[in-house]
Amino acid sequence: MKPDVTNNHHTNTESLRINSMRILDLLTIDSISPGYLDEWKEKARSWEVLNLFIEQFCMKQAIPLSELMNILEKTILIKVLSNLNGNQKEAAKFLGIKYTTLHEKVKKYNIKFLKNPIHD
Asked: How many structural domains does the chain have?
């Protein structure tokens, strides 16, 4: 007998919604320091974005997990490399991976960058 995935998904979604509401309630407490409050707001926004991403690509479009992970990994690599002007050494440090690992991933996804000259 197959598990009722639809019902579990609804339960999980409802649980996430309730937990998100609890976090937002905590964010309105006046006794929390502004820095701590900003950090929690940012985390709550990040979880909301992640949940929307999962809902859109995993549940509605039913993209296979391996394909979704490849899309996500390539997108992250391009974004980080773009922000660092294609500098793979700095990107590897930022991502917390070895330079050789990053280089292999760049080759795997055929990512190419034109380096901009540094102006004095």
From this structure: 2
CA angle in degrees (0–180, nearest 5) for 88-92-96: 170
What is the pTM (predicted TM-score) of this model? 0.57
Dihedral over alpha carbons 88, 93, 97, 98 (to 10 degrees):
60
Identify whether residues 41 and 20 lie together within a single domain. yes
Q: Is residue 78 domain-shared with residue 31, that is, in the same domain? A: no
Residues 9 and 55 in one domain: yes
Q: What is the pLDDT along the chain (120 residues), one digit of tens a residue?
A: 444 444 444 555 566 566 555 555 554 555 556 676 677 778 888 888 888 878 887 778 878 888 888 988 998 999 999 999 999 999 999 999 999 999 999 999 999 887 665 565
